[in-house]
Specification:
The chain is an all-alpha fold. It has one domain. Helix 3 packs parallel to helix 12. The longest helix is centred in the middle third of the chain and has 37 residues. The protein is globular.
Length: about 450
């Protein structure tokens, strides 16, 4: 941990405002926050890639089933995103102001409400999984496998609520290493269980796609339990008194109030993706499989965006909590510049080696071709995605969650989805649909950069 993060922990414990680092140290402090998140998300991506590699051995229908079910999972988790976004913003503010007691209370309430929200979300999804899969206009084996996968994984949602809320609070407090080591353990466990249960190794039954779902369920449940255990240890930035769990609805609604725009954004965008993928499914199974394989592969190039988004949210929030908006602004710009550099480099790397990487996942020449073409489009969009994600993180860390919402809706619906409808209507190539994402991120990054540059986010009360 850096000197700044250690002093932040000490200041919070003492109840005094933290001493922010000098402007010349901001880049180093951003990196100190970002690198554990990069590794943490890299491990998650390794898990996703490993699972997709294994499922890919079962054929295009299996790949499409898992990919479509995951798309629905991402959409219905928007409610949990609301709690997580509010948690980061409030914890960072309280830590910046040296108010450890309130920071700890936010952590506790975020876990309670995370479990409640995720449970409420999970139940109807489990019941209506087949109907949800039908939204993609897929039928037969792909639809059946996807519905079963969705039902099993949704059983893990209460544990997912614990996992995500604890990670969000600790990152808001400046502790990005605890989520790293817990996530690493869970990812290794999930890879081993996927191998055992998909192919029937080490005496386990060969369950195919169902085995991958069960492996995910067990791993996420273990992650929730591990976080409870870890938060009882000494030496943490925040202590979690898990034996004193009761809901504080006033604080809970405050957390949700800060995070609601982020939840609405996720919900609208993810359900928009359902329509987007449904249009892709109109072209055929190979195109659907290529889309999800490409997303899994390029997930590695997204890692700096996620990491620097998290770092900018933390440092902007702590800067505002300490009463220094100039520091918060500089931290946001520094995070964005670092994200652009890293994501552009990784996107170029994946574009150069697109074909051999795609061939690792499936041996269908048609799927490989479309996967490579999709990877080219995603690689070209990396600089714009870096701006979008990192500036969004900075705005949310300041409590300004509405601006990212408006920017994302304008980009996705006003450009990508609209262009996709036009392309399909005029019987255009699916490759044009791949490239519509560039127009999407041009709009998103422009609007959000304009908002951050204006500076009104520094006056928002959370």
């Amino acid at each position: 941990m850096s000197d700044f993060l250690e002093s932040a922990s000490d200041a919070a414990a003492a109840g005094t405002a933290i001493t922010l680092p000098a402007p010349g140290r901001i880049r180093a402090e951003v990196w100190a926050l970002a690198w554990p998140v990069i590794i943490s998300f890299a491990l998650d991506s390794v898990l996703g890639l490993a699972a997709m590699l294994m499922v890919g051995r079962l054929g295009p229908d299996a790949v499409g089933a898992v990919g479509l079910a995951t798309q629905i999972l991402n959409a219905v988790r928007a409610g949990i995103a609301a709690v997580g976004t509010g948690t980061v913003a409030l914890v960072a503010r309280y830590i910046g102001a040296g108010d450890r007691d309130n920071a700890e209370e936010v952590l506790k309430q975020s876990v309670i409400f995370g479990v409640l929200v995720s449970t409420i979300i999970a139940l109807p999804v489990i019941v209506f999984a087949p109907q949800l899969m039908s939204l993609f206009q897929v039928h037969g084996q792909m639809a059946e496998m996807g519905a079963r996968y969705l039902q099993v994984v949704m059983l893990s949602e209460p544990f997912q609520g614990i996992f995500l809320m604890c990670a969000a609070a600790l990152r808001g407090a400046g502790d990005t290493r605890t989520p790293l080591w817990i996530g690493g353990i869970i990812d290794v466990l999930a890879i081993i269980l996927n191998y055992m249960l998909i192919f029937g190794k080490f005496g386990a039954p060969a369950l195919g796609v169902d085995g991958s779902a069960i492996a995910t369920l067990i791993a996420i449940a273990a992650g929730g339990v591990l976080f409870f255990w870890a938060l009882s240890l000494e030496g943490m930035v925040l202590k979690f008194r898990w034996h004193r769990l009761w809901p504080d609805f006033s604080l809970g609604w405050r957390i949700l109030g800060v995070g609601n725009p982020a939840a609405i954004e996720q919900l609208i965008i993810q359900f928009g993706f359902i329509g987007y993928v449904a249009f892709i499914a109109h072209y055929g199974t190979a195109e659907v499989a290529a889309y999800f394989i490409g997303v899994r592969i390029l997930a590695f190039s997204f890692l700096p965006g996620f990491a620097f988004s998290s770092a900018s949210a933390t440092m902007v929030g702590q800067g505002l909590g300490a009463g220094d908006p100039h520091f918060a602004r500089k931290a946001g710009w520094e995070s964005t510049g670092m994200a652009i550099a890293m994501m552009s480099a990784m996107g170029l790397l994946f574009a150069v080696f697109a074909h051999p990487i795609a061939a690792m996942f499936i041996d269908d020449p048609k799927v490989i071709y479309y996967t490579v073409q999709f990877m080219y489009a995603l690689a070209a969009g990396q600089p714009l995605m870096a701006i979008d994600w990192t500036i969004s993180g900075a705005l949310r860390g300041a409590g300004d969650s509405k601006s990212p919402l408006y920017g994302s809706i304008a980009g996705f619906y006003g450009m990508r989805l609209l262009l996709t409808v036009v392309i399909v209507y005029f019987h255009g190539s699916v490759l044009l649909i791949w490239w519509s994402l560039i127009a999407d991120y041009v709009v998103r990054s422009t609007l959000k950069t304009w908002r951050f540059y204006g500076g009104k986010w520094a006056t928002i009360q959370v």
